From TrEMBL:
InterPro entries associated with the record: cNMP-bd_dom, cNMP-bd_dom_sf, RmlC-like_jellyroll
PROSITE patterns, A to Z: CNMP_BINDING_3 (PS50042)
Organism (species): Zooxanthella nutricula
Descriptive protein name: Cyclic nucleotide-binding domain-containing protein
Residues annotated as domain Cyclic nucleotide-binding: 22-114
Amino acid sequence: MPHALFRLWIGLDAEMMQRVCMDAVGFVQLQRKDDLFAAGGSAELAFSLTAGELSYTQDPETSPVQKCEVTEVNAGKWLCEAALWTRWTHVGRAEAMTSCRLLQIDAANLAETL
Protein backbone atom coordinates (compact mmCIF):
# COMPACT_ATOMS: atom_id res chain seq x y z
CA MET A 1 0.00 0.00 0.00
CA PRO A 2 1.44 3.39 -0.93
CA HIS A 3 0.75 5.04 2.45
CA ALA A 4 3.58 5.55 4.94
CA LEU A 5 1.53 4.31 7.91
CA PHE A 6 0.55 1.09 6.16
CA ARG A 7 4.17 0.50 5.11
CA LEU A 8 5.19 0.91 8.76
CA TRP A 9 2.51 -1.54 9.91
CA ILE A 10 3.66 -4.10 7.32
CA GLY A 11 7.15 -3.91 8.81
CA LEU A 12 5.86 -4.24 12.36
CA ASP A 13 3.18 -6.90 11.88
CA ALA A 14 2.84 -8.43 8.43
CA GLU A 15 0.21 -10.90 9.65
CA MET A 16 -2.03 -8.07 10.87
CA MET A 17 -1.66 -6.31 7.51
CA GLN A 18 -2.73 -9.50 5.74
CA ARG A 19 -5.92 -9.43 7.84
CA VAL A 20 -6.41 -5.74 7.01
CA CYS A 21 -6.08 -6.51 3.29
CA MET A 22 -8.56 -9.38 3.53
CA ASP A 23 -11.14 -7.57 5.68
CA ALA A 24 -10.88 -3.85 4.88
CA VAL A 25 -9.36 -3.41 1.41
CA GLY A 26 -11.11 -3.62 -1.94
CA PHE A 27 -10.94 -2.15 -5.42
CA VAL A 28 -13.22 0.18 -7.36
CA GLN A 29 -13.39 0.59 -11.14
CA LEU A 30 -14.86 3.79 -12.58
CA GLN A 31 -15.62 4.78 -16.14
CA ARG A 32 -15.25 8.32 -17.44
CA LYS A 33 -17.88 10.65 -15.91
CA ASP A 34 -18.69 8.25 -13.01
CA ASP A 35 -18.91 9.89 -9.57
CA LEU A 36 -16.81 8.41 -6.78
CA PHE A 37 -18.58 10.50 -4.12
CA ALA A 38 -20.64 13.68 -3.77
CA ALA A 39 -20.61 16.58 -1.32
CA GLY A 40 -22.72 16.03 1.78
CA GLY A 41 -22.36 12.25 1.86
CA SER A 42 -20.85 10.40 4.79
CA ALA A 43 -17.25 9.33 4.12
CA GLU A 44 -16.84 5.73 5.23
CA LEU A 45 -14.10 4.78 2.76
CA ALA A 46 -10.65 6.12 1.92
CA PHE A 47 -9.32 5.76 -1.60
CA SER A 48 -5.94 5.57 -3.30
CA LEU A 49 -6.04 6.23 -7.03
CA THR A 50 -3.93 3.53 -8.68
CA ALA A 51 -4.72 4.32 -12.33
CA GLY A 52 -6.54 7.06 -14.20
CA GLU A 53 -7.45 10.64 -13.41
CA LEU A 54 -10.17 12.17 -11.23
CA SER A 55 -11.48 15.70 -10.89
CA TYR A 56 -12.22 16.89 -7.33
CA THR A 57 -14.56 19.88 -7.20
CA GLN A 58 -15.29 22.02 -4.13
CA ASP A 59 -18.17 24.48 -4.22
CA PRO A 60 -18.72 27.37 -1.73
CA GLU A 61 -22.15 25.94 -0.85
CA THR A 62 -20.65 22.74 0.61
CA SER A 63 -17.02 23.60 1.29
CA PRO A 64 -15.03 26.38 3.01
CA VAL A 65 -13.86 27.92 -0.28
CA GLN A 66 -14.63 31.39 -1.66
CA LYS A 67 -15.15 30.23 -5.25
CA CYS A 68 -15.46 26.91 -7.04
CA GLU A 69 -12.14 25.03 -6.98
CA VAL A 70 -11.28 22.08 -9.22
CA THR A 71 -8.28 19.88 -8.46
CA GLU A 72 -6.87 17.24 -10.78
CA VAL A 73 -6.15 13.98 -8.94
CA ASN A 74 -3.59 11.62 -10.48
CA ALA A 75 -2.47 8.07 -9.75
CA GLY A 76 -0.70 7.70 -6.41
CA LYS A 77 -2.85 10.26 -4.59
CA TRP A 78 -5.19 9.59 -1.66
CA LEU A 79 -8.77 10.83 -1.25
CA CYS A 80 -10.89 10.85 1.92
CA GLU A 81 -8.01 9.68 4.12
CA ALA A 82 -9.65 11.51 7.05
CA ALA A 83 -12.44 8.90 6.99
CA LEU A 84 -9.95 6.40 8.46
CA TRP A 85 -9.30 8.47 11.57
CA THR A 86 -12.46 10.49 12.24
CA ARG A 87 -16.11 10.96 11.27
CA TRP A 88 -16.03 12.78 7.98
CA THR A 89 -18.51 14.28 5.54
CA HIS A 90 -17.56 14.87 1.93
CA VAL A 91 -17.23 18.58 1.14
CA GLY A 92 -16.63 18.09 -2.57
CA ARG A 93 -17.34 15.84 -5.53
CA ALA A 94 -14.95 13.41 -7.19
CA GLU A 95 -15.63 12.49 -10.81
CA ALA A 96 -13.64 10.19 -13.10
CA MET A 97 -12.07 12.05 -16.01
CA THR A 98 -10.78 8.77 -17.48
CA SER A 99 -11.27 5.11 -16.66
CA CYS A 100 -9.98 4.74 -13.10
CA ARG A 101 -8.95 2.03 -10.69
CA LEU A 102 -8.87 2.78 -6.98
CA LEU A 103 -7.90 0.89 -3.88
CA GLN A 104 -10.53 1.45 -1.17
CA ILE A 105 -10.21 1.01 2.57
CA ASP A 106 -13.34 0.58 4.66
CA ALA A 107 -12.82 2.63 7.84
CA ALA A 108 -15.11 0.53 10.06
CA ASN A 109 -13.56 -2.75 8.92
CA LEU A 110 -10.07 -1.32 9.40
CA ALA A 111 -10.91 -0.32 12.98
CA GLU A 112 -12.35 -3.78 13.73
CA THR A 113 -9.29 -5.52 12.30
CA LEU A 114 -6.82 -3.38 14.23
